[in-house]
Amino acid sequence: MIANTHNFQQEAYQYLIQGNYSKATNLYEQAIAAEPEIKSYYWHLGLLLLLQGQETEAQITWMLPITEVEPEKIEFYTNELIQVLQTEAERREIKEEYSIAWAIRQHIRAINPEYINNLLKLVQLSIKQETLEDTTLNDWAVIELLKQENNVNLDLLQQVLQHFLENVPFHPSTLKFIEAYLTNFSNPEDCFWIILPAAMKIGHTLKNPKLAAHLLELYLRKDPKNIEALKHVATFNQNYGNYSEGIEKAKLCYSLSQTIPDKIAAIHLLMRGLMTAGGYWQEVTSTCKELEALLQEFIQAQPFPFDGVRSLY
């Protein structure tokens, strides 16, 4: 039996963070020889072998102890192994050693391919390294797992989505990812201030109003009466030539507006769609009259600028 387990593990950990993997490996090999029944020694030894490029040896070191335990204990020990690997992956992420963190998390994926929070981290790391492929989200079943709402870390999901939209907005899986993301939130406002700025950037700065419109339309399934989203989705539809949808969304925005300024903004948007599309001249005329009436109502509602001010003379 090892005389002082805590000191031995602290010493091994110091070697690990110093990058002296061989000395840390020797300590864990001695520990296993002395106490072969302690499974955690194998998890750390396997990690050290992995960090030295010995992937096959690492996998064997992890798997052999697990095959020897009772079936009802396999999940417990597997989770214990994953925790050891995840702790090191997180340390590497803090140090911005993304390729090492990615490699460790790939092994976590091999152990538990349905661990959604690890998959989200892998997506984030792939984006940071500019290695996210067109088929990655499908290959890893990220979208399907998100739709199951299975113990997803929502803060992490928000971070990954924001990183995704900022860096790879035109990825083939963007809309499917957004759709799956939205299923995890009961309060639409939790999503709005990530999706709206992304849509604005995609639609205006990156000149892809069609994608921006589709993105906001996905959001509107969760929050169909959001006037701000309706305004922008109407604009984006009009901008890429989908005039009928742009006009319908502007009408809906107008019907839902409660204040005079909101109604004026919505009816301007409707006029924009009608006049750009062409062929709606009768409707343009009636809409102009409606706009004139709204403007008169707006003017009448304003207080006289000098009301209540006494004359100085």
CATH 4th-level superfamily of the domain at 1-112:
Tetratricopeptide repeat domain
Q: Which overall shape is indicated by the principal axes computed on the Cα atoms?
A: rod-shaped
* Alpha-carbon Rg, integer: 29 Å
- The succession of helices and strands, N to C, reads HHHHHHHHHHHHHHHHH
What are the segments in which pLDDT stays under 50 over at least 5 consecutive residues? 306-313
User: How would you classify the helix and strand content by structural class?
Assistant: mainly alpha
Please describe the biggest sheet, giving its number of strands, its sense, and whether it closes into a barrel.
none
Under the CATH scheme, the architecture of the domain at 1-112 is Alpha Horseshoe
Distance between the termini: 102 Å
What is the helix fraction of residues, given as a range? Answer: over 70%
Please tally the helical runs, counting DSSP H or I stretches of 4 or more residues: 17
- What is the CATH top level name of the domain at 1-112? Mainly Alpha
- The count of β-strands is 0
Strand content: under 5%
* Average pLDDT rating: 91
CATH topology of the domain at 1-112: Serine Threonine Protein Phosphatase 5, Tetratricopeptide repeat
